[in-house]
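Retro notes
What went well: the complex prediction finally ran end to end.
Inputs used:
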Amino acid sequence: MNIILILAPASIGLGALGLAAFLWTMNAGQYDDPEGDAARILYDHLDDKPPADPER
Amino acid sequence: MSQGLALHRDLEAFVQRDDAGRGRLELLVTGARCAGCIGKIEKAVRAMPGVSAARLNLTTGKLAVDLEPGKADPERVVETVEGLGYRACLFDPAEAGAAQDREGKELAIALGVAGFGAGNVMMFTVPAWAGLFGQELNASTLTLMYWMAAIVATPCALFAGRPFFRSAWASLKRGKANMDVPISIGVILTLIVSFSETMLGGKHAYFDAAVTLLFLLLIGRYLDHRLRASARSAARDLLALQAPVALRLVDGVEQGVPVAEVKVGDRLVVAPGERVPVDGVVEAGRSELDNALISGETALVPVAEGARLHAGALNLSGRLVMAATARSEDSTLAAIARLMEAGAQARSSYVRLADKAAALYVPVVHTAAALTFVGGWVLGLGVREALLRAAAVLIVTCPCALGLAVPAVQIAASSRLFRKGVLVKSGAALERLAEADHVVFDKTGVLTEGKPALIGAPDQLVALAAPLARASRHPLARALSAAAGAGPVAVDCVETAGQGVEGVIDGRRARLGRAAFVGVRGGDARETELWFGFEGDLKIRFVFEDRRRADAAETIARLRRLGMSVEVLSGDLAGPVGDVAGALGVSDWRAGLTPFEKAEIVDRLKSEGRKVLMVGDGLNDAAALAKAHVSMAPGAAVDAAQTAADLVFTGEGLGAVVEAVETARESRRRALENFGFSGLYNLVAIPAAVLGLVNPFVAALAMSGSSIAVLLNAARPRLGRRA
């Protein structure tokens, strides 16, 4: 049974990692312009990084 | 737009500055669609002096430009973008701030957190359910599982529940109970009971139910928000586009000023292609005005010195100098805007289906829960068992299905309509549309195409005049050249504002324009006409008519079959309105109405208990659109009409109106089915909970089961009907 004490926190930790990644993409403005991002990836000369300060 | 910008104006107000003096400018760019557009626009703007960065958001159409300290020339940025062939206008910083979708972001984050909680809490509750059915799981392990579930679920539920708690609190403060009240009470009570059960070593804890309930509800809430947000941002863009500038003439120099600053007596310049900014009188210049959007009149109105101008009229051919007789706030346009506002306010008091259901649901469920508690206690179950059963009643009657019932149906319906070219601005609009029983049509631009078309002219005569018509940008000349197709253009063309165009075709001098300009006396003022003639030769008359939409008659017949009555209200003259109404078989029509009379008639119909669907496209309809129970505007309508309307339809036909009404009625039926289903489900679930037959496993199963059934019913394609 002791294994639960390791496995349970480990799996919650993984889930939390996923949640943290989602919150990060959200705050980094990665969902602000889906159409533009789809277009930007096609050409090298376009700036395909997310905007520097999405909140401003 | 570009004419106004060629002048010097102080646009510093549009620049947002930080402490170091760096500026940020936002522009709304229309016409950009692809990766190539992004490259062109960003490269050109970045290359400008004083610009440090530029980024175009293709989804919202906003171009954000970062400026270095000191130098700022917003006009040049606009000119640069317009020079590339896109339409651009400056975005008011106040509007730009509001445009960020904070609510959507908050809901998405809450949804993410609830999803995380609902997924991970299963890890502990599934083993606990196994224990409920007699598998090997001793009491202390069960309690351990519940504690771990509590650690995951409680913070998630409290965080993800904030949108509901806030809304429930606001509703209670107003002395009403909306759907969020039972949700909030259910979640909080569930958490409290589950904690006390876990501490006392009991077998029933519902941590998973609390967070899963919120997860399912947030899905519905997020869908509903997405539906409204896209429409709202469209409306905001329209407002920003109207950032109005008037050209004031001071000592012979033209100066751009905000329309709000125009004073009575100011002399203003109205260039061809621009709208008259405020009411006034012409001081100099001749031109023709298109009043269609103000009054619905189809005939173009010639104006000369001394003529009265109404704000919003489109100046077609010549430069006019006018004296303002009213300030912007006192102009016709502003009066229409005030009526629109009043209409929108009246409409916001509409009670939505889900709230009506909540008004029924809340007292029933809460009474049942309270009776269970009191009854159980009195009958000797003990406080703990009685409270547990009362909580079970609240949990199994979970309003998930109710919360999803309406948004799921409306999302399905509006995406179906979107594919057919109808944009639905809100779920409430669909509900109101389903109730409509009387349709009011505007004539110009709705029942008709809204632009003149040549009628009954032999091809060889059209071909004769076409070379001159092609040289002019006047709407009638354009209609003539459209009828003729491509071909040669006359040479040495000179256009006389408000009169016509003169040029040389095959070596012969010819004129095309008003009767007097071509050398004909009289002419028939009742009809829209254009004259053509070679010097010293016979004169030819072309007549234009605003053609009826091809499917107007069919649309009206179909609406009647749906049990709706039809009426036509127009600002145009009685002659053309009567013709159109007669041809379409509508006996109920009125002509020569002002925008205010239209709104009044709609108001009167409303007070008679009719649910009016208004379909209109002009500024003169905007007030009536806002006042009607529900309203639709074609995609070619003026911005104000599109903003006021609940639904906007694109495409050539009127069939979209019938389509929208049918879909709205269908989705209302679906939503009611869903409510019926939830009611039926509760009829079984409440007695089961009261009798103590519900355990956490049954609660979880019932909750997801009912929600899935509601979602499937919403997504079900229409049966036995053509799609």
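What we learned: Chain A touches chain B at residues 1, 4, 8, 11-12, 15-16, 18-19, 22-23, 26, 31-36, 39-40, 42-43, 45-47, 51-52, 56 (CB under 8 Å).
What to try next: split runs per interface for comparison.
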